[in-house]
Design a protein that fits this description.
This protein is mainly α. The chain is built from 5 helices and 2 strands; from the N terminus they run ααββααα. It has a two-stranded antiparallel ribbon with strand order 1-2. A hairpin with a 4-residue loop joins β1 and β2. α2 runs antiparallel to α3 and α4 runs antiparallel to α5. The termini are far apart. Keywords: Membrane, Transmembrane, Transmembrane helix. This is Lycopene cyclase domain-containing protein.
Length: 172
């Protein structure tokens, strides 16, 4: 059940599909683009549920093994109920949200959104340096992993609909 391949070949292409789908879910969700968000969210949780369901009903044990940070977590039997729960909750939310007649206006990208997105992309050269050039030391791999986690947090924050700091005056 592992991914294998070399270079940009093999099973690693599936990771690109998952990353694209996850970035779409994050972007569409934070920016409030409802119709495609609903569709992509259900596809995301369906894929996760099918994959974790195959682990759940499989005879072999599935582990999340992080060699760089030195941990090994068995979760083959644990993750499927959570994926199923979140699939059901997302479908319930979509049904409730589609019944709501709330008119949503698309939030504009503020300066902070652009700065965070630029920072997100500026971290790629550092990751290349840590994972490819300085690959001979475990400490550089660990820094690269934490940098990647920080980068995903930045991506979420860069799509968040930040409010303007200016106070709107209401006149009657």
């Amino acid at each position: 059940m592992g991914l294998n391949g070399s270079g940009v070949g093999g099973d690693y292409w599936i990771l690109l599909i998952f990353v694209f789908l996850m970035i779409s879910v994050v972007f569409l969700g934070w920016r409030g683009i409802r119709v495609p968000f609903r569709f992509v969210l259900v596809i995301w949780f369906l894929l996760l549920t099918v994959e974790s369901g195959s682990w759940f009903f499989s005879a072999e044990s599935v582990h999340f093994k992080g060699d760089t940070l030195g941990f090994d977590v068995p979760f083959g039997k644990i993750i499927f109920p959570f994926d199923l729960l979140f699939l059901i909750l997302s479908i319930v939310w979509i049904i409730r949200d589609s019944r709501n007649n709330f008119r949503f206006t698309l939030p504009s990208m503020k300066k902070i959104n652009r700065i965070l997105l630029i920072l997100f992309f500026c971290l790629f050269p550092f990751q290349l340096l840590l994972f490819r050039i300085l690959d001979y030391s475990v400490i550089f791999d660990e820094i690269g992993v934490f940098l990647t986690i920080f980068q995903w947090i930045l991506l979420n924050l860069s799509f968040y609909p930040w409010k303007s700091s200016k106070k709107n005056k209401i006149t009657l």
